[in-house]
Every structure is written in C-alpha cells, then in structure tokens.
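Pasting as-is:
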Amino acid sequence: MLLAVVCLWALNITVTRYVLTHGFEPLAYATIRYGLAALVFLVLTLVTERTLRVARSDWPLVLAATLTLWANQVAFVYALDITTASTVGLILGATPVFAALLGLAFGTEVLHARFWLGAVVSFAGVGLVAAGSGGHIEGGREGIALGVVTAATWAAYSVAIAPLMARYSPYRISALVLTLGWALIAVTGGHQTIHQDVHLGWEVWALLVFATLGPLVTTNVLWFRSLDRIGPARATLAANLNPFVAVLFAVVLLSESLSALQLAGGALIAVGILLARRPRVGAPVPAE
C-alpha cells in the first residue's frame, strides 16, 4: 500500500505537467480536479459518518488548512506550468524541513543540532537545483520560486491539519478542507475555467480523472491504512522517496533531463532530510 501511495504521489507531478502542457489552464485544471475530489469525499463521508460537524473551537484550524491548501495548489500548478516536473519534484524534497521550521515557530517542535545542519544542507541542495535549472530550463528561476512556495505551503498545511486528524477521521477533514479549498480555487480561477477549451482529447481528460481519483482520493485510503499497520515514523520515512520517484517518472515519461548541478542538489536535499529527521515523526496528510 505504501509503495502504491509513493508512486501515485510521484506520478501526479508528471501527469500534471503533461496536462498543463497539452492545453489545460493551470487554475482551470485545479478547479475541476479539486471539485471532483471534494464531491467524492463529501459523498464518502456523508454515507459512512452521516455528518461533517467539527467543534467551533476547531474552525480556525480548518480555515488555516483551507487557506494554505489554496495557496499550495495555486503555486503547484503554476510551478508545473512554467518549469519541469523533475525540477519541482526535487524542490518538494525540502518539505519536511519547512514543516519542522514551522513546528519550531509554533512551539510544537524542539529542534536538535543535527536538524540545523540538515536544514543548511537541504537548502544548499535547493540552491544547486536552482543554479542547475536557471540557465537552460524555461521558467527556471520563477519555477524554482513557485516550487519553494509549494513546499512551504504544503508544510504549513500539514502543520495546520495535524491536530484535526487527531480528533476527526481523515475523510471528514478532507471533505471539509477540500470543499472549502475548492471554493477559493474556483473563485481565483473562475476566468480560466469559464474560457477553458474542452476539446483537448480523451487522453488529457483521462489523466485529469486519474490525477483526481488516484493521487487525491485513493492515496488517502491507502496512506492512513499504512499508518495503522506500520506506524507514522516508518511510513513517513518511506514517503521521503517521493521526490526521487517523481524525478524518475519525469525523466522516463516526459523525456526531461537533469543537469549535474540538479542531481547534486537532489542528493544534498536527501542527505539534509536524513540529517534533520526527528526521532518522533508526524504523519503527513493527504497528497496533492
């Protein structure tokens, strides 16, 4: 199950890049995809739990998760619209470092000396990825910036939603946050969605359905079942493979290339994550 989750998460980056380079506007894609996913989770939650209720005191966290998810998806689709899937995949490897820094800021983490060494190494890796992509990849610098925003906002989303996952089922929280997040994305991307050309070929539409039902819906079920069976620490460590599997898919399926600097940067990000890994690892939440 965990291997399936990692592969689906990684493949989502390549699929999204393909769809966006074959006629879909970034926000129109996000609007349709999240609308379908929200509908699935709403139906699933209402059938199994018969309620979407959360305590009034938890609504600030719900709204924070909604805002960070909205920012994450806007940055994600625009990053993949202007730069390569392999570049974005490498940058997303820094997400655990951002999550730990946010935990420190909110007083939920106590960071050891190895973490700071790992953070420096990881961000040096991000710098090498940027240096290796800026000179020969279209949209390199802008794409790097949006990739960093994607990683940071995904970390913020994970920090915001973690307390909710301790009190409610992942399906109820996903139904609420995805629906509210979709509303913000729909408002932001209304113009693109209205004017989106729908004559894109069945392959593009099939990939959009896959990106919704696979990386957004199926992974929720498999991920949380994996957590129950092997624990969050082992599951999260395996999930760190995601950026490198994403690069593999991008290179094989999209014929993308990586410079020596980018490869070195990816290696540094991986080393930094291993150095910074905390003894007590929280579980990340539903993937993009």
